[in-house]
Design goal:
Length: about 675
């Protein structure tokens, strides 16, 4: 039973599969029929497309040829229009070019520049394609006319906007640069060129530079005289201000202030001069009596006044030269700012160098003049000779400003000027020493401090203020370099160099003082040298120069103190002649003989005579320093009173004369009192 069912199930499945197979065969037949139909359709389409291609391809070729012909025609038309414009440009632009450029605005100028560009383009076309064309001659003539008119308009605009700076404006510019505390200062007249004019000039200059005709010539011809006139006016302004501020001109202005008759003016002048002399003499005496300091030989008021005027003029001359150098730097920077955009940068430095040539020449002349005055001051041992170092310091400080203004070209004239100034400064140092050696001014009759030590201390103090400038300059000198190489252990090279020079000055000064001391008798010579040596030592200590001097001369202070002690001893030895008059070769007997009486008479008479002469002379000696004066008085008492007291007590009461008061004039107390009056200027 199970087998029958199984068989029936299999037969049913077989019958079902057979039916499926028949359906698949039918579907395959239908698919094949459809595929054949599609292939037939595609084949027909392909044939039609081939036929269409054969018909269209010739049409494409014709169209491409027509487009190429059209493009050629358009290019030909444009070329013809371009060429026709070249032939028409001279006619179209003739009126515009002949009228010249309008420089009122940049836009108006640009219209003219565009016209010149068109002419330049036409020039290039004809030079390349038709050099023999008559139209080229017309264009060249019109172009050259336009360029000349542009250059003329540029020069006119430049001249209209170029004015010399006033001296007060330059002074304000210098103050603005040097005063770092000023945030903003309005300098009137420092920029006379408007913004529109600057833009117009730069547009014209840029076109000219691009055309190969940079306006360096007009700039040099117009700006250089303006810069020179600015500096000349400033120099005259400084000179007039310097003269007006000098003591000589102040007194002259004071005397000439009244607008009356010449006779009345003469009387007023005499009265004022006499009053001024009395006031100065009274002030001088008051100062000496209150301080005990009497400086310099007794010169006339007129000599001292003229020397003060000369020193003031020397210093003002140097100061004016330094201010003039600052003005040159300000002018250089102003011209640099003005020239930027007017000439190509590669030509800017050469233009500025040529533009400032006259200014630098004027500055060189003034620096030479100031240095010459300083050297003359050095030859007469004036402290104003140190002012040239202040000038050199200012020139060195201003050098970077001028280098920036002339960059990248080196400021060769300024460098030469700087080297020349340094040479004069070095020479002034040696001439000052030579001036000390050749000084012929004699000392005062009272042996007070000579003017040379006073001037030397003032000069050395003034030099010390410029240590950083003098040190490198001396270091370049072989003599000072060799001297410095022999001194080890000094860190500050500049201070060492100046110390070597101070040593040289003081050595020559000491020698000159000893030579001047030869005019005095022995006692006054010692007083003269003592006064001057002590004044030098105290001045060096008071000014701080002694520490600097110790770098090259470590025992300088001890040396001065030894000299002071030696001069003291020399002065005290001047009493030996007086003491010899009261010295007996052997004691006198108890009973005086005639020759003993005569001997005592001679001794007392000789002492009285020598004492009167010495007192009369030494009362006029001057010792300005109070401590030294009192010390000398004590030393005099110690040297004289003990031997005279012993001689007086031993012999004054002896009956060697019927009239003893004739011979015994002075008691020890009287001698002591008179010694207290020595060196007293008020006596």
């Amino acid at each position: 039973m199970y087998a029958v069912e199984k068989k029936y199930e299999i037969e049913m499945k077989l019958k079902k599969e057979m039916m499926n197979m028949q359906e698949l065969k039918a579907a395959a037949n239908r698919s094949m029929s459809i595929a054949n139909d599609v292939c037939n359709v595609l084949g027909a389409c392909e044939q039609r497309l081939q036929q269409l291609e054969k018909a269209v391809l010739p049409l494409y070729g014709d169209t491409a040829r027509l487009q190429h012909i059209h493009q050629n025609m358009e290019r030909t038309v444009k070329s013809l229009e371009h060429v026709i414009n070249y032939y028409m440009v001279s006619r179209e632009l003739a009126d515009l070019i002949q009228n010249g450029p309008h420089t009122s605005t940049t836009e108006a100028l640009n219209i003219y520049l565009e016209a010149l560009d068109k002419l330049a383009e036409a020039q290039n076309y004809f030079n390349k394609n038709n050099p023999q064309s008559v139209e080229l001659e017309n264009i060249n003539q019109l172009y050259n006319t336009g360029v000349l008119k542009l250059e003329s308009s540029f020069e006119e605009l430049l001249s209209r906007n170029t004015r010399p700076l006033s001296p007060t404006t330059l002074m304000d510019m210098i103050a603005l640069e040097e005063d770092s505390s000023v945030d903003s200062i309005s300098v009137s007249g420092s920029n006379s060129t408007t913004v529109t004019s600057v833009e117009t000039m730069r547009a014209a200059a840029a076109w000219l530079s691009a055309a190969g005709r940079p306006p360096s010539g007009p700039l040099l011809a117009i700006r250089a005289p303006a810069a020179k006139n600015s500096l000349v006016a400033f120099k005259d302004y400084l000179r007039s201000r310097s003269m007006a501020g000098s003591p000589l001109m102040r007194s002259k202005n004071l005397l000439n202030r009244a607008d009356s008759t010449s006779r009345r003016t003469s009387k007023i002048q005499k009265v004022l001069e006499k009053r001024a002399i009395n006031i100065m003499m009274k002030a001088s005496q008051t100062l000496e009596q209150s301080t005990g300091l009497a400086i310099g030989p007794r010169r006339s008021i007129n000599d001292a006044y003229m020397e003060e005027c000369s020193e003031t003029l020397d210093e003002r001359e140097v100061e004016a030269a330094g201010t003039l150098a600052a003005a040159v730097c300000r002018i250089a920077r102003r011209e640099q700012r003005h020239a930027l955009g007017l000439v190509p940068l590669p030509r800017l430095s050469a233009l500025l160098a040529a533009l400032l040539k006259d200014c630098l020449g004027i500055l060189a002349t003034e620096v030479e003049r100031a240095c010459s005055r300083s050297r003359k001051a050095a030859s007469r041992c004036s402290s104003s000779a140190a002012a040239s170092w202040a000038l050199l310091a200012r020139l060195q400080k201003l050098q970077p400003d001028l280098q920036r203004a002339l960059h990248p070209a080196p400021p060769a004239p300024y460098t030469a000027l700087l080297q020349n100034c340094q040479h004069h400064c070095i020479r002034s140092l040696e001439e000052w020493v030579e001036g000390v050696r050749n000084d012929s001014a004699s000392g005062a009759v009272d042996g007070t401090v000579h003017q040379l030590p006073v001037a030397a201390l003032a000069y050395c103090q003034a030099l010390a203020a410029h240590l950083q400038v003098i040190g490198p300059a001396l270091n370049a000198e072989p003599t000072y370099a060799r001297a410095a190489s022999q001194i080890a252990g000094v860190q500050d090279r500049n201070a060492l160099m100046l110390s070597i020079y101070f040593r040289k000055v003081l050595a020559q000064l000491n020698l000159s003082l000893r030579n001047k001391g030869e005019q005095y008798p022995d006692a006054l010579k010692a007083i003269f040298l003592l006064n001057n040596t002590l004044y030098l030592l105290q001045g060096l200590q008071r000014s701080g120069l002694l520490d600097m001097l110790a770098l090259s001369e470590p025992d300088c202070e001890a040396g001065y103190r030894r000299m002071i002690n030696d001069y003291k001893n020399t002065y005290l030895q001047s009493w030996n002649k007086l003491l010899s008059s009261i010295t007996l070769d052997e004691p006198l007997p108890a009973k005086l003989r005639d020759k003993d009486r005569q001997l005592l008479k001679d001794k007392f008479s000789s002492f009285n005579r020598e004492w009167d002469e010495t007192t009369r002379a030494q009362r006029g000696y001057s010792v300005p320093d109070v401590e030294l004066r009192e010390s000398l008085k004590r030393d005099n008492k110690a040297a004289l009173l003990p031997p005279y007291t012993a001689f007086y007590q031993a012999h004054a009461h002896l009956p060697f004369s019927k009239n003893p008061d004739k011979y015994v004039k002075y008691s020890p107390m009287q001698i002591s009192t008179q010694l207290d009056g020595y060196f007293d200027e008020a006596a």
